[in-house]
């Protein structure tokens, strides 16, 4: 039986930023006692997203944010009255959830992978929802 979703808060400090969620997710898995199953991570925001990406070279995160900016520039004539339409489009490209495999009490991530919350309209107070499903 699946346990209740865990919700945790985070505060971002920049307009665009990667926040590594992997240590928090590993801690939640350990505390849950579940050894095999799936972990679903969900971002309930429309101007932020989630991604699984390389965790070794910080320049890659800058490259990704730069590529998103090139694809979705701020100076386009957007109609959204709040002024953050580019963040909404970028969040749509990233997506709002990640599903991870849990095996033997470990998240099955690749050698260089981490799970990131990607802020696109900060700084803000945000939340992330996590649900662990035993198999």
From TrEMBL:
Pfam families named among the record's database cross-references: YjbQ
Gene3D superfamilies named among the record's database cross-references: YjbQ-like (2.60.120.460)
SUPFAM superfamilies linked to this entry: YjbQ-like
Family: Belongs to the UPF0047 family.
Stated name of the protein: Uncharacterized protein
């Amino acid at each position: 039986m699946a346990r209740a979703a865990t919700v945790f808060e985070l505060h971002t400090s920049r307009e665009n930023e990667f926040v590594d969620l992997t240590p928090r997710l590993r801690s939640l898995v350990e505390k849950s006692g579940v050894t095999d199953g799936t972990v679903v991570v969900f971002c309930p925001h429309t101007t932020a997203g989630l991604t699984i990406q390389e965790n070794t070279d910080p320049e890659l995160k800058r490259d990704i944010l730069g590529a998103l900016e090139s694809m979705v520039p701020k100076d386009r004539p957007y109609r959204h009255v709040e002024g953050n339409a580019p963040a909404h489009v970028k969040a749509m490209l990233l997506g709002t959830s990640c599903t991870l495999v849990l095996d033997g009490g470990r998240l099955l991530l690749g050698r260089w992978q981490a799970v990131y919350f990607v802020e696109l309209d900060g700084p803000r107070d945000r939340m992330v929802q996590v649900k662990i499903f035993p198999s």
